[in-house]
């Protein structure tokens, strides 16, 4: 990773910033700094149109190889794009799961027919995806999935079971599902990775209403839902390999954009502290300084983990294993700092644009150390995969 920008990098940064200044206007101006975690229900139809606006400008899938419809940008240029997108207030991406997760997975593991069918629609911002991993009894312990699938006489795959915490399933066209295809198999054996259209008989989507009133999460029930015979990624029984490849991609270059969003939240906290006088409190000042230092640590570790690694075909080093654990704890602490800075002002739900975003962030950040793998699971991954320590003993049976 080259930390010293070249003149070409600086010119590219200016190009990205200029495009965003001239396109994140008009009807799209309302989307600035909206649609992120805890705010994902905001204007989904408008955000889908924004995806197509990005596509028209060539700003979707910027890191994908050109032969698959991407721009083939270098890691350095991808970092620039994501930083400038977040700096300009680019909204939460409706196409994130397609562009950032299933698309790269199909590039790595998919058949040519699957790549031809799905990748162009993701690039164009016309089809949107949901992730069917977690279940009521298989959240952080993904290998415990109980959703079943079996192949029928015509070759299609029938799916029976339930997924939960499925972000924006009600706004998505497709879902990728990890299901158990070998009866009697346990753990990470006997799983298959399927692609299913959500608009079909045998699929019911139920919203999960949260305390804040939103329902971006859903339960998805499969009762005889079907995937085409050629919509299995990898061979039957190889679902765990594909699923783990997808999770490696999840810690990719878009993390730099996430950090810019964090920087914006920290700036809002500093503005609030100056406004209400808490910036004069030495303890608050020290916590703000600590948060700023944490952001810098996060950035440099992200650049380190994104440096190409010959040992991983998806390009991430083992340093990526610490990223989720670090940012989720940092962000939870930032939420606590936000509420302490707001004081009594933050104790009542407000529509004040100087208060509401910090309240949303503080509430949602409580879940950061749980979703996408709890702290305990993250520490196990660091120990076992990163440090080569023995696996934690599992209960017999």
From TrEMBL:
What residue stretches are annotated with the Acyl-CoA dehydrogenase/oxidase C-terminal domain? Answer: 237-386
Signal sequence range: none
KW Lyase (keyword) present: no
Cofactor(s) needed, names only, are:
FAD
Q: Which residues form the Acyl-CoA dehydrogenase/oxidase N-terminal domain?
A: 6-125
Residue ranges of domain Acyl-CoA oxidase/dehydrogenase middle in the record: 130-223
- What are the alphabetically sorted keywords of the record? FAD, Flavoprotein, Oxidoreductase
List the residue ranges forming a coiled coil, or say none.
Answer: none
Pfam families tied to this protein: Acyl-CoA_dh_1, Acyl-CoA_dh_M, Acyl-CoA_dh_N
**Family of this protein:** Belongs to the acyl-CoA dehydrogenase family.
Which protein, by its recorded name, is this? Acyl-CoA dehydrogenase family protein
């Amino acid at each position: 990773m080259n930390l010293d920008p070249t003149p070409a990098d600086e010119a590219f940064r200016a190009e990205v910033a200029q495009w965003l200044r001239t396109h994140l206007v008009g009807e799209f101006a309302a989307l600035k700094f909206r649609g992120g975690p805890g705010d994902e229900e905001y204007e989904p139809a408008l955000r889908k149109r924004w995806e197509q606006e990005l596509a028209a400008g060539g700003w979707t899938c910027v890191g994908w190889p050109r032969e698959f419809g991407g721009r083939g940008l270098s890691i350095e240029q991808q970092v620039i794009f994501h930083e400038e997108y977040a700096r300009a207030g680019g909204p939460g991406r409706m196409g994130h799961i397609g562009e950032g997760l299933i698309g790269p997975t199909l590039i790595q593991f998919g058949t040519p027919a699957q790549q031809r069918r799905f990748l162009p629609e993701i690039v164009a911002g016309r089809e949107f995806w949901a992730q069917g991993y977690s279940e009521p009894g298989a959240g952080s312990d993904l290998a415990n999935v109980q959703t079943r699938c079996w192949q029928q006489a015509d070759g299609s795959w029938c799916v029976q079971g339930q997924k939960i915490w499925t972000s924006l399933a009600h706004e998505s066209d497709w879902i990728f599902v990890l299901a158990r295809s070998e009866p009697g198999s346990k753990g990470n054996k006997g799983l298959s990775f399927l692609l299913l259209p959500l608009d079909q008989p045998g699929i019911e989507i139920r919203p999960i209403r949260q305390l804040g009133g939103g329902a971006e999460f859903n339960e998805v029930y499969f009762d005889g839902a079907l995937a085409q015979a050629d919509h299995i990624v990898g061979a039957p029984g190889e679902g765990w390999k594909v699923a783990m490849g997808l999770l490696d991609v999840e810690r990719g270059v878009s993390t730099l954009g996430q950090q810019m969003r964090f920087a914006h939240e920290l700036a809002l906290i500093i503005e609030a502290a100056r406004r209400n006088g808490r910036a004069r409190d030495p303890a608050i000042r020290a916590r703000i300084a600590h948060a700023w230092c944490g952001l810098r640590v996060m950035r440099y570790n992200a650049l380190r983990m994104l440096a190409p690694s010959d040992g991983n075909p998806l390009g991430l080093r083992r340093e990526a294993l610490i990223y989720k654990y670090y940012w989720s704890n940092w962000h939870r602490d930032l939420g606590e700092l936000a509420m302490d800075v707001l004081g009594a002002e933050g104790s009542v739900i407000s529509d004040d644009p100087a208060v509401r975003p910090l309240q949303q962030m503080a509430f949602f950040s409580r879940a950061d150390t749980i979703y996408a793998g709890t702290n305990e699971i993250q520490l196990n991954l660091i120990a076992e995969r990163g440090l080569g320590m023995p696996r934690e003993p599992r209960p017999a049976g």
